[in-house]
């Protein structure tokens, strides 16, 4: 069986892949990324495909998975905070509002071109004040996450609800990955996704 290479340094993505029962190696691509506030889908698509291409050049005979995630809010693509103060400002801006999370996943079977899937979810935040934001950041320490938060790390403190794939909000839509791998002949163990477990 050919190797699966995950072209991502994200520990959350590694955890999602492991929960699917996948054995994989990690490759951290070094390639330029774009950031287009006007087009979140284009941003994640271009970046995921660039990461996939960088990996494919060195692993031409492997299964390859690359991904990119952005938070789209108020006409902007929100990245990682630049400082603790920036994280606090982001979360206060999200107070009582709904945002969209887009993840593009570029996948390929050995010897094949990349196929792209883009998944969207939404997140609605609780009404937040300075104290609530400070308490969340002190507890969760999510300064290295897009938007300054992680739904899977004490998300209930700041998030009222979500729609769509939970794991997509974490950075990798597990059901999309599982379905693509199975459809393309990867011997993936049949395990329920996080969404199925939550039902």
Q: What is this structure, in a nutshell?
A:
By secondary structure, this protein is of the alpha/beta class. The chain has helices at residues 11-19, 40-58, 84-94, 130-140, 166-170, 174-183, 194-198; strands at 4-7, 25-26, 63-73, 76-78, 98-108, 115-125, 159-163. The radius of gyration is 17 Å and the shape is elongated.
Give the count of helical stretches.
7
Structural class: alpha/beta
String of helices and strands: EHEHEEHEEHEHHH
The CATH architecture would be: Alpha-Beta Complex
Number of strands: 7
How many separate domains make up the residues?
Answer: 1
Q: DSSP strand (E) fraction?
A: 15-25%
Major sheet, described briefly? 7 strands, mixed
The whole-angstrom Rg is: 17 Å
What oligomeric state do these chains adopt?
single chain
Span of the ends, CA to CA: 33 Å
Helix content: 25-40%
Low-confidence stretches: none
Q: What would CATH call the class?
A: Alpha Beta
Q: Could you tell me the mean pLDDT?
A: 93
Q: What would you call the shape? A: elongated
CATH topology (fold) name? Maf protein
């Amino acid at each position: 069986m050919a190797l699966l290479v995950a072209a991502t340094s994200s520990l959350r993505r590694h955890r999602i892949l492991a929960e699917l029962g996948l054995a994989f190696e990690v490759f951290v691509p070094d390639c330029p990324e774009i950031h287009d506030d006007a087009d979140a889908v284009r941003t994640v698509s271009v970046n995921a495909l660039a990461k996939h291409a960088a990996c494919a050049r060195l692993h031409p005979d492997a299964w390859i998975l690359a991904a990119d995630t952005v938070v789209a809010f108020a006409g902007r693509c929100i990245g990682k905070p630049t400082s603790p103060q920036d994280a606090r400002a982001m979360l206060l801006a999200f107070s009582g509002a709904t945002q969209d999370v887009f993840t593009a996943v570029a996948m390929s079977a050995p010897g094949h071109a990349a196929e792209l899937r883009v998944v969207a979810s939404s997140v609605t935040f609780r009404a937040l004040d300075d104290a609530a934001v400070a308490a969340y950041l002190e507890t969760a320490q999510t300064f290295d996450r897009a938007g300054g938060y992680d739904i899977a790390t004490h998300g209930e403190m700041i998030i009222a609800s979500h729609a769509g794939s939970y794991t997509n909000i974490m950075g990798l839509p597990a059901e999309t990955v599982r379905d693509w791998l199975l459809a393309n002949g990867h011997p993936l163990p049949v395990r329920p996704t996080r969404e199925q477990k939550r039902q």
